[in-house]
Amino acid sequence: MADSKELVKFRNEVLNSKSQSFCGAKWGNSTLWLNSGETASCHLPPVHKIDVVQIQEDPAKLHTTDHKIKMRDLMQKGEKPTECDYCWKVESMGPDYLSDRVFKSLQFTPEEMQKWYELPADARVVPPTIEVMFDRTCNFACSYCNANFSTEWAKDIKKHGFYEGETRGMGAFKHDGSINNCYEKENNPFIEAWWNWWPELANELRVLRITGGEPLMSDDVWKLFDRVIEEEREFEVGVNSNLGAKKALIDKLIQKSHGMKNLTIFTSMEAVGDQAEYIRDKLDYNHWKNNIERILEESNVRRIVVMMTINALCIFSVTNFLDQMMEWKKKYTKKSLGISVNFLRFPAFMSVTVLPNELRHGIHKELEDWYETNRYSPYLNSMEKGDIERLISYVKVIEKPHLYDTDIEANRKDFKRFYEQYDIRRDKTIRIFPKEFLEWYDTL
Hints:
This protein is α/β, with parallel strands linked by helices. The chain has helices spanning 4-15, 25-28, 54-57, 66-77, 85-91, 100-105, 110-118, 151-160, 189-204, 219-230, 247-257, 273-279, 285-298, 318-331, 357-374, 382-397, 408-426, 435-441, and strands at residues 29-33, 38-40, 48-49, 129-133, 141-142, 207-211, 236-240, 263-268, 280-281, 303-310, 336-343. The strands form 2 sheets. Strands 3-2-1-4-6-7-8-10-11 form a 9-stranded mixed β-sheet. A two-stranded antiparallel sheet has the order 5-9.
């Protein structure tokens, strides 16, 4: 898509011509957490359970769950599922505002979305794009993650106990993840169903994305790489890696990349230096930068996408991080290096919305100035410009992280409670952030 006008046209002519709530992701995309037997079709709604009995009869039920069938039915009728409230909130800001419903649907053709729209809601669909997680093994314990997705987080909880006082984070820091990771790797029925589905799935896939945990620490991921190489699969394989793994695993990734035809690395960062290391516990920021440059210089990786998770703490160095991305884009002109902007909504007390207006207004002005300087740069594509425009609007306009959360003062109390405990547990200090932020923080 060339610009926002074309994106609006796509929304109106391809999506809204079916219904005001149609989104191709509910049919064409699936995220599968095989470690816990859960799924979703987008990163914004809550996840839901996969029926362990149904997948034994048909492994495609890993994707076409009873819950998704209900959501598809609503969308076909033009009703707006409440779990998709983030998109409805963005669209309510005005006709020119583009929600994730648009960006999630761009990866599908108008013809296949028309086919899905005309099918019965319960039709068996093999999605062309899938994201899969095999296990939660991870070397990081990022502040907004939890023990469901990180063994390092599980160690924290087992060593120090539950976080105290936090009430509005959906219990994210009051468990060790064992309930949602109750299957042994070698006896996991969801992983078994995945491999049973693989011959059919692999013939339909356009994009396979692997997440974790840290995928480079998972045996099943290397098994998957080998299958792709041996079967000479040409669909895009994307790996969500924190790129903070030991050198031997980065070496192995680079070596495997030369046997793969279409490999993309998705990594995550949204701040710089010690602020980034504070947000992402166990991160060595310079090691991450070095690994980015190694992959750009040594691998056969087709592209790298850096995913930014916008939260209350990252925005104090977010323009510095954007500067780093622009520096790499200019240096590695023969490589594809992109950015995507995602907004943290859970836990709600880490959202940008907890910050007072005076801080948000200052950051909004800083982002506007950065964009004014860089908006005509040939190194930013239309999608990236759209993401940055949404970021600027979000920082200024959005007042609550999601539909069900209206108590900002409660979130602010939880913000203070969490980071006081986080500092003690992780031997960190929030005092590395700017003075104006700390003056507000100390009043909580």
